[in-house]
Amino acid sequence: MKFTQFAKLMFAVAGAGNSTSAYTRTLFLSIVMYEDEELNPIYDHKDSTFKAYYNGTNDITKLARRISTYIEPEEFISYIESLPDAAVEALCTSFAPYIPSINLYSAAADLADLFKSIIIEASSTDKKIAPANAVGEIAIQSDKLDRIFGTRLLVETKGLCPNDNCCKHLYLDTNGQTTMNYTIIQIDPTAKENQINNAIALCPECGKKYILTRNADSIARMKEIKEQLLRESDAIDTLSNTNVEEGVERVLRKIADPLVQLIPLNYDPVELKQKILPENRPLYIKTKGYVIEYYSAVHGTFQQLSKEGKLRFTPFCMQIKLNYLNLRDRGLSQLEIFDAMASWLASNTNDRKDLCEIVISYFVQKCEVFDAITE
Questions:
Q1: Same domain, yes or no, for 250 and 359?
Q2: Percentages helix, strand, coil for the chain, rounded to the nearest 5?
Q3: Which of 24, 148, 203, 303 has the smallest set of CB atoms within 10 Å of its CB?
């Protein structure tokens, strides 16, 4: 969408009592923030210039380049939220062909994102990485990548949009019918096409916003998100061929049913301090709590099951150790290893992940998982 289209749609609903030039100036003032307003170039422009922007006889490229680093979408969100509900509903109707998902509750953020993308696109017209023209590129590119990588990329996301501050399902349930609802985008448009490492599945809203506002920073961040998805997927693949003995006797009989009146323990898990890196303190706190509360009961249940011939304790310990080494050698962090092993145990036993975290914490304390920190 060009600025002239955006301005005319906005003016038709919210511009009453203003000239087109005054309202156009107001639009720009509503999406930028300067600590020193005297530096704001919007005040330097004549009314005739803003009238030309509104009519489309002048493009906004020069102004866009001057203000692009001062864009503050929250300012524009506040402006939209200050309008009466009836006006916002009218804006939803006007912009629905360009933002199909727009509604009374999302309108402020949706319009702020659209306005931001218009300015960024105008400021980037001669740069190598320029935002694409949204709807057409998304549809064509997503369809092409979907045919090649669709299923793999959906599995990679576990059915949830991986974009920052989003966790929408990539499917819709309507009248008992489930339909997929996602967009596959090329992360870096300058990289080689049709590479799975350069493709990611997002919800339609995030896909559109990403392509509209794509720049060096957003590309770098999306690459980080993709790398994390690949690491998690790689961890699952690494453990997928290892089996668990009989559901670890239903995850140690649901951690010993429920541990029959646990006796309070005065127990300091020294081993954990020697193995979990200082930067992973949240993991240390979690595993320490599990070890203090459950270590003795888990250990006793392992020994009892081994005596009863229901679980081979030594081979199982070796399997845990091997899984850890495989994940470590792939360069995963301690947090990633712990989560991957708990997920593996939960998937193979069809049981709760928190119970499986207790078992993995036992092996962290017992030295099958993680190496001692070298001084």
A1: yes
A2: 65, 5, 30
A3: 303
